Amino acid sequence: MASGPEPREVVIRDETIRLGQLLKLAGLAASGGEACTLVQEGDARVNGEIELRRGRQLRRGDLVSVEGETVRVA
User: Fold this and answer.
1) DSSP labels for 43-63?
2) Cα–Cα dist 13/37, whole Å
3) Pairing of strands 8-10, 49-50
4) Cα separation of 18 and 7, whole Å?
5) In order of start, what are the domains of the chain with their CATH numbers?
6) Maximum CA extent, the chain
7) Could you give the CA distance from residue 67 to residue 28 in angstroms, rounded to a whole number?
8) 67 in Cβ contact with 4 (< 8 Å)
9) Mind listing the pLDDT tens digit of every residue in the chain (74 residues)?
10) Is the pTM of the predicted complex or chain greater than 0.85?
């Protein structure tokens, strides 16, 4: 069974980052407003689960997917 490409890594400075901030940092959202909309509409997944909280704290190793693109917090 073939697997998809490896997720792109997004390096963070601190121990945690909020989901909305990561979406902007990773280029998955162009603005805070767009990040908010993506999350509210259920388009963001954290570790495979739909996440509806823009303030969700993410840690290194978490996988975030939006519209078919996945990044790993590093």
Assistant:
1) -EEETTEE---TT-EEETT-E
2) 25
3) unpaired
4) 19
5) 19-73 (3.10.290.10)
6) 38
7) 9
8) no
9) 445 678 999 999 999 999 999 999 999 999 999 999 999 999 999 999 999 999 999 999 999 999 999 999 99
10) yes
